[in-house]
Amino acid sequence: MTSFALTPDGTQLAFDDTGGPGEPVLLVCGQGQDRHFWRGFAQALTDTAPGRWRPIALDPRGIGDSDALPPADAGPWQTRDMAHDLVAVLDALGLPRAHLIGFSLGGRVAQWFAVDHGDRLGALVLAGTTPGNAHGVARDPAVSALLARGDLSALAATMVPPDWAAAHADALPGLMRSRTIAQPVLRRYFEASEAHDAWAGLACVQAPSLVLHGTRDPVNVPDNARRLAERLPHAELAWIEGAHHAPFWSHLPDTVQAVSAFLARHPLPR
């Protein structure tokens, strides 16, 4: 069932909470995606150890069932702003802290959450993401053009290997998001992603961190994972062999195993 958190500026953020007594795991999706991205992974994570994990997936502002972004004249929307929104979700649920999994743009948001709100963080998983353009490794400009346009069908092909895409052609667009997103919203998220730079703060992150990446990711190329793992003080690196940008779909068993084993080694304090 969909619930809502209220941010300090009055914005409602939609989220799905599986509930129960398990350790909360906050799931933050990538650019142009909504909380439906996580459905298969959330169920698989829960199934690995019933009662152990409590996945919570949210819609970013302007996407899915959440309220609109701040108006453009209020200034650029930044990944650091999005990290502050995550606090509102934890507060709405009365949770002092949670594990955090951020994918792609959500991984950039998760970096800022770890920097600014480390007291609310258990373990950190950064998946298919980068430290930002200033310190990361650039992707093919053609892929950046797809991201800037928000070309859903073309982007879907970067998410998974061709054989998986062919076998799931009907379902793939719905995995990206449940409804159309306005082009100006997509553009503002692209700009926020391109401007991201948490490099200085990453060196101070104290949370145990897992940097998880597909070995054939064309969106955020794999060398970015190495740079993140080297920058974070308490990081380990997990490769999902053969995966493109979204191992949460095409390589679900391997991804769930890597994430669940990592989280189990770093339980939340009671």
Unreliable stretches (pLDDT < 50, length at least 5) are none
CATH class: Alpha Beta
Strand/helix succession:
EEEHEHEHEHHHHHHEHEHH
Principal-axes geometry comes out as globular
Rg over CA atoms, rounded to whole Å, is: 17 Å
Describe the protein's architecture and organization.
The protein contains twelve helices and eight strands. The protein has an eight-stranded mixed sheet, with helices on both faces. It starts with a strand and ends in a 5-residue tail after the last helix. The chain has 270 residues and is α/β, with parallel strands linked by helices. Helix 10 (223-231) links the parallel strand 7 (209-214) and strand 8.
Brief summary of the model shown:
The protein has 270 residues and is of the alpha/beta class. The protein is built from 12 helices and 8 strands.
Question: How would the blueprint of this fold be written?
Answer:
Blueprint: E1 2-6, E2 12-17, E3 23-28, H1 39-48, E4 53-58, H2 79-92, E5 98-103, H3 105-116, E6 121-127, H4 141-149, H5 152-159, H6 162-167, H7 172-176, H8 183-195, H9 199-202, E7 209-214, H10 223-231, E8 235-240, H11 247-250, H12 252-265
Parallel strand pairs: 3-4, 3-5, 5-6, 6-7, 7-8
Antiparallel strand pairs: 1-2, 2-4
Helix pairs in contact: 1-12, 2-3
